[in-house]
Amino acid sequence: MLQALLSVDKLRAKEVLRAAREQYQPIEVVEGVIVPSLERIGNDWVTGEVSLSQVYMSGKICNEILGDIIPDNCRVRERQLNIAIAVLEDFHTLGKQIVKGFLQASGFEVVDYGMGVSVDDLVGRTVRDKVDVLLISVLMLPSALRVREVRRGLRQRQSGAIIVVGGAPFNFDEELYKEVEADYMGRTVSDAISIIHTIEKLRG
């Protein structure tokens, strides 16, 4: 699977998943084949062994072929977390799209609130949709600092949503996520998958 994704061979990747699906349940295919492959690719990007385009295409391919292998009426995860993702007051999409694609390819349902979302809008949508995990992507420091306002807004509305942040400002300052009262910070797409798995286990 790893070789198929890195060579952007969608047909080969589909064959691998189809063969696995004949022997294993959907969740076993996702967590035994897709997730390890995507995590490896994410880690290899950090060390410079694969390109950003390979990371992006790997998530895209897995996301596309997952529906072909697993029927629409077959839920990959019985106890789904309600996950949403947004770019807070910035206008960039690549990082968000990669994280979203990797999570969806790993069997998670993710609601996309888009980019340039204001604090008030993000708080309102999170409360309305009863979001369990809110993924926030930022590019600039001023936007990163406004995560604290999102936290306070959610607290005032009695939302217990877990906030996971990512983006350049948090990579430069590893303690920043604590200062803005986020719960977790991820540097890579593999971090995002690991964090969601951790939250799943904590939620039981």
TrEMBL record:
The domain of life is Bacteria
Task: Read off the Pfam families from this record.
Answer: B12-binding, B12-binding_2
Q: Which organism is it from?
A: Candidatus Magnetobacterium casense
Annotated ranges, domain B12-binding: 79-204
Could you identify this protein by its name?
Cobalamin B12-binding domain-containing protein
Q: Which UniProt keywords apply?
A: Cobalt, Metal-binding
